[in-house]
Amino acid sequence: MIYDEKSAINLLRCIAENPLYLFDTTHPINLDKVSSDFALSSHRMIAVAIYNLANNGAKQLNAETIEEYIKAHSNLSVECVKELINGQADINNYEMYYNNVRKCSLLRYYEHENFDVSQFKVECLDKFSIIDINNFIEQKLVTAKRDFEIQNASTIETRAGENYEQIINEYDTNPVFGSPFCSQLLNGVTGGLINGQLYCFSSPSGVGKTTLAISEIVKKCATRLWNEETNGYIDNECKVINGALYIQFELDNVKEITPKFLGMISGINPKIITKGHYENQELKDRLMQAGKILYDSHIIIECMPTFTQREIDIVIKNAILKNDINFVVFDYIADGAEITTEINQSNGGVGLRTDQILARETAFLKNEARLYDIPIYTMTQTNSNIGVSDVLGEECISGSRAVAQKLDTGGVFLPLRAKEIKAQDFLFLNLKDPPSYKATHIYHLYKARFSVYPKDIKLWVNFDLGTGVMKDCFATTWDDKKIIQVEKLNLTK
What we know:
With 493 residues, the protein is α/β, with parallel strands linked by helices. It folds into 2 domains: 5-148, DNAb Helicase, Chain A (Orthogonal Bundle); 184-410, P-loop containing nucleotide triphosphate hydrolases (Rossmann fold). Helices cover 44% and strands 13% of the residues. Strands 5-4-6-7-1-8-9-10-11-12 form a 10-stranded mixed beta sheet, sandwiched between helices. A two-stranded antiparallel sheet has the order 2-3. The N and C termini lie far apart (58 Å).
Protein backbone atom coordinates (compact mmCIF):
# COMPACT_ATOMS: atom_id res chain seq x y z
CA MET A 1 0.00 0.00 0.00
CA ILE A 2 1.22 3.50 -0.90
CA TYR A 3 1.33 5.22 2.48
CA ASP A 4 3.85 7.22 4.48
CA GLU A 5 2.85 6.09 7.96
CA LYS A 6 5.50 8.17 9.69
CA SER A 7 4.32 11.43 8.05
CA ALA A 8 0.69 10.55 8.83
CA ILE A 9 1.46 10.01 12.53
CA ASN A 10 3.44 13.24 12.75
CA LEU A 11 0.61 15.11 11.00
CA LEU A 12 -1.87 13.79 13.58
CA ARG A 13 0.46 14.82 16.41
CA CYS A 14 0.73 18.35 14.98
CA ILE A 15 -3.01 18.89 14.66
CA ALA A 16 -3.63 17.37 18.10
CA GLU A 17 -1.20 19.87 19.59
CA ASN A 18 -2.71 22.74 17.58
CA PRO A 19 -6.17 21.94 16.13
CA LEU A 20 -6.24 25.33 14.38
CA TYR A 21 -4.17 23.67 11.66
CA LEU A 22 -7.44 22.06 10.56
CA PHE A 23 -8.73 25.46 9.46
CA ASP A 24 -5.63 26.49 7.53
CA THR A 25 -7.02 27.27 4.04
CA THR A 26 -3.66 26.60 2.37
CA HIS A 27 -3.43 23.09 3.90
CA PRO A 28 -7.04 22.09 4.52
CA ILE A 29 -8.04 18.95 6.39
CA ASN A 30 -11.75 18.13 6.43
CA LEU A 31 -13.85 15.02 6.82
CA ASP A 32 -13.87 14.44 3.07
CA LYS A 33 -10.08 14.35 3.01
CA VAL A 34 -9.75 12.25 6.16
CA SER A 35 -11.23 9.16 4.53
CA SER A 36 -8.87 9.37 1.56
CA ASP A 37 -5.72 10.78 3.15
CA PHE A 38 -5.40 8.41 6.11
CA ALA A 39 -5.11 4.88 4.79
CA LEU A 40 -5.13 3.07 8.18
CA SER A 41 -8.42 2.83 10.11
CA SER A 42 -6.73 3.76 13.39
CA HIS A 43 -5.38 6.95 11.84
CA ARG A 44 -8.78 7.82 10.36
CA MET A 45 -10.43 7.21 13.75
CA ILE A 46 -8.05 9.63 15.50
CA ALA A 47 -8.30 12.23 12.70
CA VAL A 48 -12.13 12.23 12.89
CA ALA A 49 -11.99 12.59 16.68
CA ILE A 50 -9.56 15.53 16.47
CA TYR A 51 -11.65 17.16 13.75
CA ASN A 52 -14.90 16.93 15.72
CA LEU A 53 -13.30 18.06 18.99
CA ALA A 54 -11.71 21.03 17.25
CA ASN A 55 -15.05 22.03 15.76
CA ASN A 56 -16.47 21.93 19.30
CA GLY A 57 -13.90 24.50 20.38
CA ALA A 58 -10.94 22.43 21.62
CA LYS A 59 -7.71 24.46 21.52
CA GLN A 60 -5.30 21.65 22.39
CA LEU A 61 -5.72 17.89 22.63
CA ASN A 62 -3.96 14.95 24.26
CA ALA A 63 -4.29 11.19 24.05
CA GLU A 64 -6.69 10.99 27.01
CA THR A 65 -9.12 13.52 25.54
CA ILE A 66 -9.12 11.75 22.18
CA GLU A 67 -9.59 8.36 23.90
CA GLU A 68 -12.61 9.61 25.81
CA TYR A 69 -14.20 10.97 22.67
CA ILE A 70 -13.68 7.72 20.74
CA LYS A 71 -15.11 5.63 23.63
CA ALA A 72 -18.18 7.84 23.81
CA HIS A 73 -18.89 7.86 20.11
CA SER A 74 -17.84 4.47 18.75
CA ASN A 75 -17.09 0.86 19.57
CA LEU A 76 -13.62 1.01 18.12
CA SER A 77 -10.56 0.06 20.10
CA VAL A 78 -8.60 2.95 21.53
CA GLU A 79 -5.48 1.08 22.57
CA CYS A 80 -3.35 2.66 19.85
CA VAL A 81 -4.22 6.28 20.64
CA LYS A 82 -1.56 6.85 23.30
CA GLU A 83 1.08 5.11 21.20
CA LEU A 84 0.35 7.33 18.23
CA ILE A 85 -0.31 10.67 19.90
CA ASN A 86 2.16 10.59 22.80
CA GLY A 87 5.12 11.52 20.70
CA GLN A 88 6.86 14.64 19.60
CA ALA A 89 6.40 16.03 16.10
CA ASP A 90 8.33 18.97 14.73
CA ILE A 91 5.75 21.71 14.12
CA ASN A 92 8.17 23.37 11.70
CA ASN A 93 7.82 20.35 9.41
CA TYR A 94 4.01 20.48 9.34
CA GLU A 95 3.87 21.42 5.66
CA MET A 96 6.16 18.52 4.75
CA TYR A 97 4.03 16.03 6.72
CA TYR A 98 0.88 17.39 5.10
CA ASN A 99 2.27 17.29 1.57
CA ASN A 100 3.64 13.76 1.98
CA VAL A 101 0.26 12.49 3.17
CA ARG A 102 -1.50 14.23 0.25
CA LYS A 103 0.99 12.86 -2.30
CA CYS A 104 0.40 9.32 -1.09
CA SER A 105 -3.36 9.88 -1.16
CA LEU A 106 -3.18 11.03 -4.78
CA LEU A 107 -0.97 8.12 -5.79
CA ARG A 108 -3.40 5.64 -4.18
CA TYR A 109 -6.24 7.27 -6.11
CA TYR A 110 -4.47 6.88 -9.45
CA GLU A 111 -3.40 3.35 -8.57
CA HIS A 112 -7.05 2.52 -7.82
CA GLU A 113 -7.92 3.89 -11.29
CA ASN A 114 -5.39 1.44 -12.77
CA PHE A 115 -2.66 3.94 -13.60
CA ASP A 116 0.92 2.75 -13.20
CA VAL A 117 2.49 5.12 -10.67
CA SER A 118 5.31 2.80 -9.66
CA GLN A 119 7.93 5.36 -10.62
CA PHE A 120 6.89 7.46 -7.61
CA LYS A 121 8.46 5.84 -4.55
CA VAL A 122 7.21 6.52 -1.01
CA GLU A 123 10.78 6.68 0.24
CA CYS A 124 11.47 9.51 -2.23
CA LEU A 125 8.50 11.78 -1.51
CA ASP A 126 10.71 14.85 -1.26
CA LYS A 127 11.85 14.41 -4.87
CA PHE A 128 8.49 15.11 -6.53
CA SER A 129 5.41 17.27 -6.01
CA ILE A 130 1.66 16.81 -6.47
CA ILE A 131 2.03 18.84 -9.66
CA ASP A 132 4.62 16.33 -10.93
CA ILE A 133 2.21 13.45 -10.28
CA ASN A 134 -0.68 15.14 -12.05
CA ASN A 135 1.49 16.21 -14.97
CA PHE A 136 2.71 12.62 -15.35
CA ILE A 137 -0.87 11.30 -15.51
CA GLU A 138 -2.05 14.07 -17.81
CA GLN A 139 0.84 13.36 -20.18
CA LYS A 140 -0.18 9.71 -20.28
CA LEU A 141 -3.75 10.74 -21.15
CA VAL A 142 -2.59 13.17 -23.83
CA THR A 143 -0.30 10.55 -25.33
CA ALA A 144 -3.07 7.96 -25.31
CA LYS A 145 -5.48 10.40 -26.95
CA ARG A 146 -2.95 11.31 -29.63
CA ASP A 147 -2.03 7.70 -30.34
CA PHE A 148 -5.68 6.68 -30.47
CA GLU A 149 -6.49 9.42 -32.94
CA ILE A 150 -3.50 8.55 -35.11
CA GLN A 151 -4.41 4.88 -35.16
CA ASN A 152 -7.92 5.72 -36.24
CA ALA A 153 -7.02 8.36 -38.77
CA SER A 154 -7.95 7.55 -42.36
CA THR A 155 -4.44 8.45 -43.53
CA ILE A 156 -1.18 8.46 -41.65
CA GLU A 157 1.04 9.41 -44.56
CA THR A 158 -0.16 11.43 -47.57
CA ARG A 159 1.32 12.58 -50.85
CA ALA A 160 1.56 16.32 -51.46
CA GLY A 161 -1.34 17.35 -53.68
CA GLU A 162 -3.55 14.45 -52.66
CA ASN A 163 -7.23 15.48 -52.59
CA TYR A 164 -6.28 18.91 -53.95
CA GLU A 165 -9.68 19.45 -55.60
CA GLN A 166 -11.51 18.84 -52.30
CA ILE A 167 -9.13 21.11 -50.38
CA ILE A 168 -9.42 23.95 -52.93
CA ASN A 169 -13.21 23.72 -52.94
CA GLU A 170 -13.33 23.68 -49.13
CA TYR A 171 -11.28 26.88 -48.92
CA ASP A 172 -13.43 28.40 -51.65
CA THR A 173 -16.57 27.66 -49.63
CA ASN A 174 -15.11 28.27 -46.15
CA PRO A 175 -12.08 30.57 -46.25
CA VAL A 176 -9.90 30.63 -43.12
CA PHE A 177 -11.03 33.66 -41.17
CA GLY A 178 -11.50 34.06 -37.44
CA SER A 179 -13.60 36.32 -35.24
CA PRO A 180 -13.08 40.07 -35.73
CA PHE A 181 -10.64 42.41 -34.06
CA CYS A 182 -11.78 45.94 -33.29
CA SER A 183 -9.55 47.04 -36.16
CA GLN A 184 -10.54 46.03 -39.70
CA LEU A 185 -6.96 46.76 -40.75
CA LEU A 186 -5.78 44.21 -38.21
CA ASN A 187 -8.36 41.76 -39.59
CA GLY A 188 -6.92 42.34 -43.05
CA VAL A 189 -3.37 41.54 -41.95
CA THR A 190 -4.12 38.55 -39.70
CA GLY A 191 -7.44 37.15 -40.89
CA GLY A 192 -8.92 37.81 -37.46
CA LEU A 193 -8.71 35.73 -34.29
CA ILE A 194 -8.35 32.18 -35.58
CA ASN A 195 -8.95 29.08 -33.45
CA GLY A 196 -5.83 27.49 -32.03
CA GLN A 197 -3.72 30.65 -32.31
CA LEU A 198 -2.15 32.91 -29.68
CA TYR A 199 -2.23 36.70 -30.01
CA CYS A 200 -0.25 39.11 -27.84
CA PHE A 201 -0.16 42.91 -27.76
CA SER A 202 2.22 44.72 -25.42
CA SER A 203 2.05 48.15 -23.84
CA PRO A 204 3.59 49.99 -20.88
CA SER A 205 1.56 50.36 -17.69
CA GLY A 206 -1.30 52.82 -17.90
CA VAL A 207 -1.53 52.94 -21.70
CA GLY A 208 -4.69 50.88 -21.99
CA LYS A 209 -3.88 47.16 -22.29
CA THR A 210 -6.91 46.17 -20.23
CA THR A 211 -9.19 48.63 -22.03
CA LEU A 212 -8.08 47.25 -25.39
CA ALA A 213 -8.64 43.67 -24.21
CA ILE A 214 -12.13 44.42 -22.89
CA SER A 215 -13.03 46.20 -26.13
CA GLU A 216 -12.04 43.03 -28.05
CA ILE A 217 -14.34 40.97 -25.83
CA VAL A 218 -17.25 43.38 -26.31
CA LYS A 219 -16.66 43.47 -30.07
CA LYS A 220 -17.14 39.70 -30.32
CA CYS A 221 -19.61 38.98 -27.52
CA ALA A 222 -22.03 41.85 -27.00
CA THR A 223 -25.45 41.02 -28.40
CA ARG A 224 -26.23 44.71 -29.04
CA LEU A 225 -24.25 47.97 -29.12
CA TRP A 226 -25.18 51.65 -28.88
CA ASN A 227 -25.23 53.37 -32.24
CA GLU A 228 -24.77 57.14 -32.30
CA GLU A 229 -26.32 57.53 -35.74
CA THR A 230 -29.60 55.87 -34.79
CA ASN A 231 -29.39 57.07 -31.17
CA GLY A 232 -30.29 53.59 -29.97
CA TYR A 233 -29.09 50.03 -29.57
CA ILE A 234 -28.65 47.88 -32.67
CA ASP A 235 -27.71 44.23 -33.16
CA ASN A 236 -23.95 43.65 -33.07
CA GLU A 237 -23.10 42.31 -36.52
CA CYS A 238 -19.67 41.24 -35.28
CA LYS A 239 -20.99 38.88 -32.59
CA VAL A 240 -19.61 35.63 -33.92
CA ILE A 241 -18.71 33.70 -30.78
CA ASN A 242 -20.75 32.10 -27.99
CA GLY A 243 -19.03 33.79 -25.10
CA ALA A 244 -15.68 34.71 -23.63
CA LEU A 245 -13.57 34.05 -20.56
CA TYR A 246 -11.67 37.02 -19.15
CA ILE A 247 -8.89 35.97 -16.75
CA GLN A 248 -7.48 38.90 -14.87
CA PHE A 249 -5.12 39.42 -11.94
CA GLU A 250 -4.68 43.08 -11.10
CA LEU A 251 -8.27 44.33 -11.00
CA ASP A 252 -9.56 41.86 -8.47
CA ASN A 253 -12.91 43.53 -8.04
CA VAL A 254 -15.58 42.91 -10.68
CA LYS A 255 -17.17 46.20 -9.62
CA GLU A 256 -14.12 48.04 -11.01
CA ILE A 257 -14.27 46.29 -14.38
CA THR A 258 -18.00 46.47 -15.01
CA PRO A 259 -18.07 50.21 -15.89
CA LYS A 260 -15.57 49.50 -18.69
CA PHE A 261 -17.86 46.86 -20.17
CA LEU A 262 -20.94 49.07 -19.72
CA GLY A 263 -19.16 52.05 -21.28
CA MET A 264 -18.21 50.10 -24.40
CA ILE A 265 -21.72 48.73 -24.86
CA SER A 266 -23.55 52.00 -24.12
CA GLY A 267 -21.08 54.48 -25.63
CA ILE A 268 -20.94 56.30 -22.28
CA ASN A 269 -17.51 57.08 -20.83
CA PRO A 270 -16.86 54.94 -17.71
CA LYS A 271 -15.84 58.11 -15.82
CA ILE A 272 -19.43 59.34 -16.17
CA ILE A 273 -20.75 55.97 -15.00
CA THR A 274 -18.60 55.83 -11.86
CA LYS A 275 -19.52 59.39 -10.83
CA GLY A 276 -23.23 58.48 -10.71
CA HIS A 277 -25.87 61.19 -10.30
CA TYR A 278 -26.82 60.75 -13.92
CA GLU A 279 -28.03 63.92 -15.60
CA ASN A 280 -31.33 62.42 -16.70
CA GLN A 281 -33.42 59.28 -16.54
CA GLU A 282 -32.79 58.59 -20.21
CA LEU A 283 -29.07 58.16 -19.54
CA LYS A 284 -29.72 55.81 -16.63
CA ASP A 285 -32.19 53.78 -18.72
CA ARG A 286 -29.52 53.52 -21.43
CA LEU A 287 -27.08 52.17 -18.85
CA MET A 288 -29.63 49.74 -17.47
CA GLN A 289 -30.15 48.39 -20.98
CA ALA A 290 -26.39 48.05 -21.35
CA GLY A 291 -26.28 46.03 -18.13
CA LYS A 292 -28.94 43.64 -19.46
CA ILE A 293 -27.01 43.29 -22.72
CA LEU A 294 -23.78 42.63 -20.80
CA TYR A 295 -25.45 39.90 -18.75
CA ASP A 296 -26.90 38.28 -21.89
CA SER A 297 -23.55 38.42 -23.71
CA HIS A 298 -22.15 35.46 -21.80
CA ILE A 299 -18.85 36.91 -20.59
CA ILE A 300 -17.23 35.05 -17.69
CA ILE A 301 -14.80 37.01 -15.49
CA GLU A 302 -12.34 34.97 -13.47
CA CYS A 303 -10.23 36.79 -10.90
CA MET A 304 -7.06 34.90 -9.95
CA PRO A 305 -4.82 36.95 -7.61
CA THR A 306 -2.55 33.92 -7.49
CA PHE A 307 -2.27 31.40 -10.27
CA THR A 308 -0.47 28.36 -11.64
CA GLN A 309 -0.59 26.77 -15.08
CA ARG A 310 -2.67 23.91 -13.71
CA GLU A 311 -5.17 26.31 -12.12
CA ILE A 312 -5.44 28.30 -15.36
CA ASP A 313 -6.05 25.11 -17.35
CA ILE A 314 -8.84 24.08 -14.96
CA VAL A 315 -10.48 27.51 -15.26
CA ILE A 316 -10.36 27.43 -19.08
CA LYS A 317 -11.56 23.82 -19.25
CA ASN A 318 -14.48 24.51 -16.89
CA ALA A 319 -15.48 27.65 -18.82
CA ILE A 320 -15.58 25.69 -22.06
CA LEU A 321 -17.47 22.71 -20.63
CA LYS A 322 -19.89 24.56 -18.35
CA ASN A 323 -20.36 27.89 -20.15
CA ASP A 324 -19.57 27.00 -23.78
CA ILE A 325 -17.11 29.89 -24.22
CA ASN A 326 -14.88 29.94 -27.31
CA PHE A 327 -12.62 32.95 -26.71
CA VAL A 328 -10.15 33.56 -23.87
CA VAL A 329 -8.47 36.81 -22.84
CA PHE A 330 -5.54 36.40 -20.46
CA ASP A 331 -4.67 39.70 -18.74
CA TYR A 332 -1.63 39.41 -18.71
CA ILE A 333 1.61 37.30 -18.99
CA ALA A 334 3.60 37.91 -15.82
CA ASP A 335 5.96 36.05 -13.50
CA GLY A 336 3.71 35.53 -10.47
CA ALA A 337 5.17 33.81 -7.42
CA GLU A 338 3.02 30.67 -7.67
CA ILE A 339 3.49 30.07 -11.39
CA THR A 340 7.23 30.73 -11.06
CA THR A 341 7.47 28.12 -8.30
CA GLU A 342 5.46 25.65 -10.36
CA ILE A 343 7.63 26.11 -13.46
CA ASN A 344 10.86 25.88 -11.43
CA GLN A 345 9.63 22.65 -9.84
CA SER A 346 8.90 21.20 -13.26
CA ASN A 347 12.47 22.14 -14.16
CA GLY A 348 13.86 19.89 -11.44
CA GLY A 349 13.90 22.67 -8.87
CA VAL A 350 16.43 24.70 -10.87
CA GLY A 351 15.53 28.39 -10.82
CA LEU A 352 14.91 29.97 -14.24
CA ARG A 353 15.42 33.56 -15.36
CA THR A 354 12.38 35.82 -15.67
CA ASP A 355 12.50 35.70 -19.48
CA GLN A 356 12.54 31.90 -19.35
CA ILE A 357 9.55 31.87 -16.99
CA LEU A 358 7.60 34.20 -19.33
CA ALA A 359 8.55 32.08 -22.34
CA ARG A 360 7.24 28.91 -20.69
CA GLU A 361 4.04 30.68 -19.65
CA THR A 362 3.59 31.81 -23.26
CA ALA A 363 4.21 28.29 -24.56
CA PHE A 364 1.61 27.01 -22.10
CA LEU A 365 -1.00 29.49 -23.42
CA LYS A 366 -0.19 28.47 -27.01
CA ASN A 367 -0.72 24.82 -26.06
CA GLU A 368 -4.04 25.72 -24.42
CA ALA A 369 -5.18 27.44 -27.63
CA ARG A 370 -4.29 24.35 -29.64
CA LEU A 371 -5.71 21.89 -27.12
CA TYR A 372 -9.11 23.55 -26.89
CA ASP A 373 -9.15 24.91 -30.46
CA ILE A 374 -9.90 28.49 -29.45
CA PRO A 375 -8.13 31.82 -29.97
CA ILE A 376 -6.36 33.19 -26.90
CA TYR A 377 -5.61 36.90 -26.64
CA THR A 378 -3.04 38.07 -24.11
CA MET A 379 -0.76 40.97 -23.24
CA THR A 380 2.67 41.72 -21.81
CA GLN A 381 4.43 44.70 -20.40
CA THR A 382 7.04 46.48 -22.51
CA ASN A 383 10.62 47.00 -21.37
CA SER A 384 13.04 49.95 -21.44
CA ASN A 385 13.84 49.49 -25.15
CA ILE A 386 10.55 51.09 -26.03
CA GLY A 387 11.97 54.53 -25.33
CA VAL A 388 14.96 54.26 -27.65
CA SER A 389 13.87 52.00 -30.51
CA ASP A 390 12.78 53.33 -33.90
CA VAL A 391 11.25 49.97 -34.72
CA LEU A 392 9.10 48.61 -31.90
CA GLY A 393 9.56 44.88 -32.28
CA GLU A 394 9.93 41.79 -30.15
CA GLU A 395 12.97 43.23 -28.37
CA CYS A 396 10.62 45.74 -26.67
CA ILE A 397 8.46 43.20 -24.85
CA SER A 398 9.02 41.53 -21.48
CA GLY A 399 10.54 38.13 -22.17
CA SER A 400 11.72 39.40 -25.57
CA ARG A 401 12.34 36.92 -28.39
CA ALA A 402 11.67 33.84 -26.28
CA VAL A 403 8.05 35.01 -25.85
CA ALA A 404 7.68 36.20 -29.45
CA GLN A 405 8.69 32.79 -30.83
CA LYS A 406 5.59 31.19 -29.31
CA LEU A 407 3.13 33.72 -30.75
CA ASP A 408 1.11 33.53 -33.92
CA THR A 409 0.55 37.30 -33.96
CA GLY A 410 2.44 39.84 -31.88
CA GLY A 411 2.65 43.60 -31.69
CA VAL A 412 3.19 46.66 -29.53
CA PHE A 413 0.18 48.96 -29.03
CA LEU A 414 1.09 52.57 -28.22
CA PRO A 415 -0.17 56.13 -28.46
CA LEU A 416 1.53 58.09 -31.21
CA ARG A 417 5.05 59.22 -30.32
CA ALA A 418 6.32 62.74 -31.15
CA LYS A 419 7.87 61.73 -34.46
CA GLU A 420 4.68 59.92 -35.49
CA ILE A 421 2.49 62.90 -34.64
CA LYS A 422 4.71 64.95 -36.94
CA ALA A 423 4.67 62.27 -39.65
CA GLN A 424 0.87 61.95 -39.59
CA ASP A 425 0.38 65.46 -40.98
CA PHE A 426 2.60 64.59 -43.95
CA LEU A 427 0.93 61.20 -44.48
CA PHE A 428 -2.52 62.78 -44.60
CA LEU A 429 -1.37 64.79 -47.63
CA ASN A 430 -0.63 61.56 -49.47
CA LEU A 431 -3.95 59.86 -48.74
CA LYS A 432 -6.44 59.83 -51.59
CA ASP A 433 -9.39 59.68 -49.20
CA PRO A 434 -8.19 60.77 -45.71
CA PRO A 435 -10.51 60.06 -42.76
CA SER A 436 -12.18 62.88 -40.87
CA TYR A 437 -10.31 61.90 -37.70
CA LYS A 438 -6.65 61.51 -36.82
CA ALA A 439 -4.90 58.43 -35.43
CA THR A 440 -4.33 58.27 -31.68
CA HIS A 441 -2.66 54.86 -31.43
CA ILE A 442 -0.54 52.50 -33.53
CA TYR A 443 -0.27 48.72 -33.74
CA HIS A 444 3.43 48.05 -34.32
CA LEU A 445 3.18 44.51 -35.73
CA TYR A 446 6.39 42.50 -35.52
CA LYS A 447 4.80 39.12 -36.23
CA ALA A 448 1.74 37.88 -38.11
CA ARG A 449 2.32 34.26 -38.99
CA PHE A 450 0.25 34.03 -42.16
CA SER A 451 0.33 37.65 -43.27
CA VAL A 452 1.20 38.62 -46.86
CA TYR A 453 2.21 42.09 -45.70
CA PRO A 454 5.78 43.11 -44.78
CA LYS A 455 7.22 42.61 -41.31
CA ASP A 456 7.14 45.58 -38.93
CA ILE A 457 4.03 47.04 -40.52
CA LYS A 458 2.31 49.85 -38.59
CA LEU A 459 -1.48 50.12 -38.35
CA TRP A 460 -2.70 53.59 -37.41
CA VAL A 461 -6.04 53.75 -35.56
CA ASN A 462 -8.21 56.16 -33.61
CA PHE A 463 -8.97 54.54 -30.24
CA ASP A 464 -11.26 56.00 -27.58
CA LEU A 465 -9.93 54.81 -24.22
CA GLY A 466 -13.30 55.54 -22.63
CA THR A 467 -15.80 53.84 -24.91
CA GLY A 468 -13.40 51.41 -26.59
CA VAL A 469 -14.51 52.55 -30.06
CA MET A 470 -11.79 51.97 -32.65
CA LYS A 471 -11.67 53.57 -36.10
CA ASP A 472 -9.11 52.57 -38.72
CA CYS A 473 -6.93 55.21 -40.39
CA PHE A 474 -4.16 53.73 -42.59
CA ALA A 475 -1.11 51.47 -42.64
CA THR A 476 2.55 52.37 -43.19
CA THR A 477 6.04 50.95 -43.27
CA TRP A 478 7.98 51.05 -40.00
CA ASP A 479 9.69 54.33 -40.91
CA ASP A 480 6.37 56.15 -41.64
CA LYS A 481 7.56 56.99 -45.17
CA LYS A 482 5.27 54.82 -47.26
CA ILE A 483 1.53 54.11 -47.16
CA ILE A 484 0.72 50.40 -47.42
CA GLN A 485 -2.61 49.47 -48.96
CA VAL A 486 -4.17 46.99 -46.51
CA GLU A 487 -7.65 45.59 -47.08
CA LYS A 488 -10.05 46.62 -44.32
CA LEU A 489 -11.69 43.29 -43.58
CA ASN A 490 -15.09 43.41 -41.87
CA LEU A 491 -15.55 39.96 -40.33
CA THR A 492 -19.22 39.59 -39.46
CA LYS A 493 -21.76 36.82 -39.04
